[in-house]
Amino acid sequence: DAKTTQPTSMDCAEGRAANLPCNHSTISGNEYVYWYRQIHSQGPQYIIHGLKNNETNEMASLIITEDRKSSTLILPHATLRDTAVYYCIVSALGRGKLIFGQGTELSVKP
Amino acid sequence: NAGVTQTPKFQVLKTGQSMTLQCAQDMNHNSMYWYRQDPGMGLRLIYYSASEGTTDKGEVPNGYNVSRLNKREFSLRLESAAPSQTSVYFCASSVDLRYEQYFGPGTRLTVT
What we know:
The complex is a heterodimer of chains A (110) and B (112). Chain A has 110 residues and is mainly beta. Chain A has no helices and nine strands. Chain A has strands spanning 9-13, 18-23, 31-38, 45-50, 55-56, 61-64, 70-75, 84-92, 104-109. In chain A, strands 1-9-8-3-4 form a five-stranded mixed beta sheet, with no helix packed on it. Chain B is mainly β and 112 residues long. Chain B has no helices and eleven strands. In chain B, strand 4 and strand 5 (43-49) form a beta hairpin. Chain B is globular and about 35 Å long. The interface between A and B is medium-sized, with 20 and 27 residues.
């Protein structure tokens, strides 16, 4: 599985968009980009995933660069409840083995 | 619809004791997983079960055994607990290996 690099921490003002970057320069053609988050001490929560096209759901948008070497998770209107550790994971579909790195600790401030 | 449930929530063991962590899901998922999370770290996969009747090792299987009891239940057993197994254990399930995973609330285990 390709490795990912994320900033250790980020701050965002409540109501503003939170843009969380992820580098995955060694991603293979059959590997997807997954995003999960973990709110303090709880089990991780799935957010979104994509292969090469941009994706959007009710929680977030995922923008993947054309060369697929990096991506950005966008929370359009961050709230205090979005304060969490966000994990960017690269894995082949069907592999089932998610490798969690250190993630980005996002703090949403009033 | 409870999702993924884990028992117990907390447990303290002495070195050498054994115990089984229980996990159940009510979403009719085929695949189930066990992870551990050490302080300040991401989750690491211990074992997973792609479907009922199958189990496979993950990143850190040593010191653990698993049983896929039926489609709903996947248990994790520590035969002889060690302090290095102090961690938070999360169970997860998914429709199958291709789909997103849903996690339980975790079991906080301390081995003294």
